[in-house]
Amino acid sequence: MGSAICICSRGVITIENKRYLFVQKLGEGGFSYVDLVEGVHDGRFYALKRILCHDREDRKEAMHEVEMHRLFNHPNILRLEAHCMIEKGSKWEAWLLLPFVKKGTLWNEVEELRDKNRYLSEDKILHILHGICLGLKAIHDSGYAHRDLKPTNVLLEDDYRPLLMDLGSMNHARIEVTSSRQAMSVQDWAAQRCTISYRAPELFNVESNCVIDERTDIWSLGCVLYSMMFGEGPYDMIFQKGDSVALAVQNNISIPANNRYSQSLESLLASMMVVNHVERPYINTVLSQIEALVPIVDGQATTRI
Fold it and tell me: Which residue has the higher pLDDT, 132 or 7?
């Protein structure tokens, strides 16, 4: 897994025999921190994600995220540069070294525009959406689902190429539920790992005899598209007000009246946000719908961004 040495007085760390200089903190979540570091060997900047592991189960989950990254070498999925597990007293930290993307997340872009009372153009939305779908297709084709797709888990390169990140919630695409006990287990897992305002309806009240499949991601993708179009997710405000998201997602999505976007884009959004997951399209169908709206050259959407 590589070795890591923290030389705190000099702000230097070593991962897999390469040294990195600590630059600054970038952010933190409930159980993880992200630092900006610079490679001594190449002068490039990286994001170092440090996951706090309190017990063996935490370490297992951190290694699961590493393993999910290792499955992919795709232009729309954030790659893992290196990793290691280090001991800190009675606890451990999993260190994941990732490329640093200066532009930030899709949510940063959406929020910045919204604050200026502006919105993404349809061409730009289609360009970003197409890239997200290519990344999702790679995940789904490998037999997995992302399970926590949201604007803060999509990075944007300077050319607006999206990169899917935070693969820790990924699991097998198809989950067969055959008992009430198993249903409750899946539901509890979703409550912990799938962001509530982007969570598919079938994960709020899991039936005791059903199949959960990768189309949970298609619902979340619809929420991401909605946020690009209207500056916030369709259920963000419901959650912030303390109202029931679980109840709200049982009704058909209401698309705000606007003159910014075509009927075709609104129809694409509606097709993804179907409450009954068996009526939702798979990723290949969504890609075909997007590619019908924009020219495609060498497998990439070509839009004026």
Answer: 132
Q: What percent of the chain has pLDDT over 90?
A: 87
d(CA 93, CA 96): 10
Beta carbons of 86 and 6 less than 8 angstroms apart: yes
CA–CA separation, 101 vs 120, rounded Å? 20
Q: How many CB atoms lie within 10 A of CB 156?
A: 21
Query: What tokens does 176 get?
Result: 């067969």
Q: Are residues 149 and 283 in the same domain?
A: yes
Number of domains in the chain: 2
Residue 263, pLDDT score: 95
Residue type for position 276: N
Q: Would residue 148 show up in a list of annotated catalytic residues for this protein?
A: yes
Active-site residue, from 148, 166, 213, 217? 148
Domain with residue 125: its CATH number is 1.10.510.10
Whether the per-residue pLDDT at 145 is higher than 90: the answer is yes
Q: Give the Cα separation of 273 and 283 in Å (integer).
A: 13
Q: Is the pLDDT of residue 13 over 80?
A: yes
Residues 260, 158 share a domain: yes
The better pLDDT of the pair 1, 99 is held by 99
In terms of residue numbers, what domain contains 49? 4-99
